[in-house]
Specification:
Blueprint (H helix, E strand, L loop, with lengths): L1 E5 L4 H6 L1 H10 L4 E6 L2 H7 L7 E4 L7 H10 L7 E4 L6 H10 L3 E6 L5 H6 L2 E4 L6 H6 L22 H13 L6 E6 L15 H14 L3 E6 L8 H5 L7 E3 L5 H8 L4 E4 L3 H8 L5 E4 L16 E3 L8 H4 L11 H9 L3 H11 L1
Parallel strand pairs: 1-2, 1-4, 2-3, 4-5, 5-6, 7-8, 7-10, 8-9, 10-11, 11-12
Length: 354
């Protein structure tokens, strides 16, 4: 059997799909299991995964529509018997991609934005469930393909090379951080749709770091991120004590993960790095509540400290659902929503943990 797993929604969602990939491999040990991704980071986290036969990476957002169609149609030559769109991939584009790739059986979750066309693009679908994690939403697919859960417990898989571990140790030594208390911070978030508006405002991150530098100089701050955060880190560093705060410059996501493992605490909103922190069982994980956070995407299988957003007040699904749309609200409303979390709220949580 040749199986194509389509995971185009993001790096974090690809990591969330890894327990499903493990179950696929256990159920069909002789099958070829290829995974289609569109982020270099998603490729990085799957490259060492023994449950994956091949990672097919294409930055589709940088292609014209014609290039996208031609690339996806080129996958037909692989003659996949089965393709599965992992949860959550609500927009119709993901099912068009599955149809273009041409597997005989094409499975997706059924989202509230489904139309008659979505139903034509796949051969089977099942309802998504906001009451369970995306990992469990993926497991719900198994009976549709004659499979079942074979493991009693599940973890997200992220395999790090010894070379990446050495990089992290060398980074700490080079920057005189070995044995020091380290707080990792990711100031970013997803960049599609209006997802940047779920970020805690950069001025508040800068104020938090300044307060930590002044009042807790025993804590060193590492700023994590990718190309999207290149312009943000200088804003924070301009107000920081640079002997206590620096960028975690890495070449790929595996190096980033190895360095995250050395942190005594890690702070973010719900991002790919939040999920990596959960996969690595990083101690003292702190999550700022954004409107996109809900039961389906909480850090899986690990304890964490939630900085509650008083303006959301449990109404997360009123702001964001897997319906193909943006976070609900104007730019000004969403910025004010995230500004409602005060610097002192986050500072107090950090200083209780470290």
């Amino acid at each position: 059997m040749k199986i194509l797993v389509i995971s185009l929604a993001g790096i974090g969602d690809t990591l969330i799909a890894t327990p499903f990939l493990r179950e696929l491999h256990l159920n069909f040990p002789q099958a070829t299991i290829d995974v289609l991704v569109k982020e270099a980071g998603a490729r990085d986290l799957l490259e060492r995964n023994p449950n994956v036969s091949r990672v097919i990476y294409k930055d589709l957002w940088k292609c014209s529509q014609l290039e996208q169609v031609l690339f996806l149609r080129s996958l037909r030559k692989e003659r996949y018997q089965l393709s599965i769109n992992t949860h959550p991939q609500s927009r119709i584009h993901y099912r068009i991609g599955a149809w273009l790739a041409g597997a005989e059986v094409r499975i997706s979750h059924h989202y509230e934005c489904f139309t008659w066309l979505d139903r034509l693009l796949v051969t089977a679908s099942l309802p998504q469930d906001y009451n369970c994690h995306s990992i469990d939403n993926n497991f719900n697919v198994l009976p549709l393909i004659g499979a079942k859960k074979l493991q009693a417990e599940h973890v997200m898989d992220f395999f790090i090379d010894p070379a990446d571990e050495r990089f992290a140790d060398d980074f700490l030594t080079r920057n005189k951080l070995a044995g020091k208390k380290i707080l990792g911070i990711h100031v970013g978030s997803g960049g599609t749709k209006n997802l940047p508006l779920k970020r805690w405002p950069l001025k508040q991150y800068a104020g938090l770091v300044r307060k930590l530098n002044n009042e807790r100089p025993d804590i060193h701050v590492l700023l994590f991120g990718g190309p999207e955060e290149v312009k943000d880190h200088p804003v924070v560093l301009a107000q920081a004590n640079t002997s206590l705060t620096l960028e975690a410059k890495t070449k790929n996501l595996r190096e980033t993960a190895a360095l995250m493992k050395r942190c005594n605490a890690f702070l973010s909103v719900d991002t790919a790095l939040m999920h990596i922190g959960a996969a690595l069982k990083i101690s003292n994980q702190i999550v700022i509540e954004a409107p996109t956070l809900n039961v389906t995407n909480w850090p899986y299988g690990t304890s964490f400290t939630l900085i509650k957003n008083p303006a959301i007040n449990g109404r997360n699904l009123e702001y964001y659902r897997y319906d193909g749309g943006d976070i609900k609200g104007t730019r000004e409303e969403l910025i004010a929503l995230m500004e409602s979390i005060k610097i002192t709220d986050v500072f107090d949580a950090i200083t209780k943990l470290i």
